[in-house]
């Protein structure tokens, strides 16, 4: 077994908690593989696991947390309520179901997965998350795939802002305006699909920067996320790639590198626009 890499730094959250800046993302990780890959990630040095009810692997993530041998406070576990369960009572039930699958005593972060404005239930869902947090069953609460106007409505109607907004974010879609909005309100921006589902890795510019720094194109992009201040949760299916993705804290992109990556902004999404749901 290789020696673990240094753990990612922890970023403070507005509620007084903190979150490891780089975690292991479990979207499209089959349940049969999830526990083993989580343990590979933990062995490599990860301390942050990001899943969701929709991913179908909460049970296995819980198994890995218990099997890791680490104290519960050393691992940061995130899950999300699926859009079909938006609404106050349904969100409360969905959280209970998630916790039965995890078989953990609490979560570190629970998110609304999508706002689904067409059903107009995300404010009620947010009220349910506030209750769950106030009951001590989750440490922090946030949202996923929320535009600025969705967050403004949460704050206007409940007085509470999320501590994290997890959105699609990569060099083609850097979400500059949303990141600035989040930052001015003490909200951490977290990037899903940080490599544009791997598609951005075919960009010649990233190959050039990888050669310049003696790193892989994926490490260049993940380092870009880190230097922007994003929380980032790459997914990988092989232990060597899991380890490679965490090994991005020993080099730095310079101002010219960052400007070059900024030129890749096209606004292209790999997923849905949250307002279209």
TrEMBL record:
Gene3D superfamilies in alphabetical order: NADP-dependent oxidoreductase domain
Q: What is its EC number?
A: 1.1.1.346
Q: Which family does it belong to?
A: Belongs to the aldo/keto reductase family.
> Which PANTHER family does its entry note?
2,5-DIKETO-D-GLUCONIC ACID REDUCTASE (PTHR43827), NADP-DEPENDENT OXIDOREDUCTASE DOMAIN-CONTAINING PROTEIN (PTHR43827:SF3)
Q: What class of enzyme is it?
A: oxidoreductase
**Record organism:** Agromyces hippuratus
Q: Where is the active site?
A: 55
Does NADP appear among the keywords?
A: yes
Keyword terms, alphabetized = NADP, Oxidoreductase
Which positions in this protein are listed as binding substrate? 113
Protein name per its UniProtKB record:
2,5-diketo-D-gluconate reductase A
